Amino acid sequence: MTMLQCSAMLFDMDGVLVDSTPAVARVWTWWAMEHGLVPEEVVRRAHGRPSLATIQELLPRGNHDAENREVERREIEDIADVVALPGALALLQAIPETRWTVVTSATRALAVVRLRASGLPVPKHLVTATDLPRGKPFPDPYLKGAEVLHIPAAECIVAEDAASGVRSGKAAGARVLGLRTTSTDAELLSAGANWVADDLSAVSLESAKADETFALQLRLTHKG
């Protein structure tokens, strides 16, 4: 067991709180085939980043805004098998509600739809790709997440499953828990993750103090 002390947690959404992997793969596979691209490569690049950044990178001469609107429309409609990941609901219910938020590369509309579809609460101060000109791996998203909670990023722990998100959290000055739901240990650690666990079921609230700082208990398993 490892004990972690922090003032707040900042959660990525897809791959951390919500399993949207099948939906993401379906939508980006469709988009890749529409443009003669390799689906597996497009799906890999799209994970953990704003969709607009992926579109701009892979289709430099396209109508980026129109393409992004169509991708978002399809993602919003494709939620039949979107579910909460293990441990997500229990941890969100345990942590004081003023001490956590979601920081996601999804748009605000898509984030709200996926959180509700998975049965998870929508935080009051949700940070999305809609709110910032620069997304992950830049530090802006997690700096904003800490700001809306009125807590220094250095006192926060970020939960991430993608290398780009790990880099974003570290660049913001936070400590990062990497989850194996999407990426390998090597990918998470090389991006700067402080710890690696299977999913949020490995994390439980140990104690909360009067000043609302809290201790987390983390069960680490090492992969051979």
Task: Walk me through the structure.
The protein has 224 residues and is of the alpha/beta class. It has two domains: 2-20 and 82-218, HAD superfamily/HAD-like (Rossmann fold); 21-77. The chain is 39% helix and 18% strand. It has nine helices and ten strands. The strands form three sheets. A five-stranded parallel β-sheet has the order 5-2-6-7-8. A three-stranded antiparallel β-sheet has the order 1-10-9, covered by helices on one side. Strands 3-4 form a two-stranded antiparallel sheet. Helix 3 crosses helix 4 (64-77). The longest helix is centred in the first third of the chain and has 14 residues, at 21-34.
- Low-confidence segments: none
CATH architecture term of the largest domain: 3-Layer(aba) Sandwich
**What is the tally of helical segments?**
9
Pattern of helices and strands: EEEHHHHEHEHHEHEHEEE
Secondary structure blueprint with pairings:
Blueprint (H helix, E strand, L loop, with lengths): L1 E5 L1 E4 L6 E2 L1 H14 L4 H8 L4 H8 L5 H14 L5 E2 L3 H7 L5 E3 L5 H10 L22 H10 L6 E5 L2 H9 L3 E5 L5 H7 L3 E3 L5 E6 L5 E5 L6
Parallel strand pairs: 2-5, 2-6, 6-7, 7-8
Antiparallel strand pairs: 1-10, 3-4, 9-10
